[in-house]
Amino acid sequence: MFPSPQICVVKETSTLRxxxxxLGPGTxxxxxxxxxxxxxxxxxxxxxxxxKLGDKIIVIPIxxxx
Length: 66
Fold this sequence. Notes:
Shape: globular
Oligomer: single chain
Number of strands: 6
Strand content: 25-35%
Low-confidence stretches: none
Strand order of the largest sheet: 1-6-3-4
Mean pLDDT: 91
Helix content: 10-25%
C-alpha cells in the first residue's frame, strides 16, 4: 500500500525543519534521508526557511526500491 500525501496547515511559526520534527521522528528521518518531498505553499523550501501561520505544507512520500 502506498501512503497518501499529507496536507498540513501551520498553526505556529517555526522553521520548516522544526515543523517536520513535530510531525514525528519517523517523518524527520524520512526527510533527512530524502524519501519524502515537502512543499510549502506549492514551492520547495530550505529546512531553515521560516513557515508562517496559515502556510500549507504538503508531505509527499517517494516510491523507492530496487
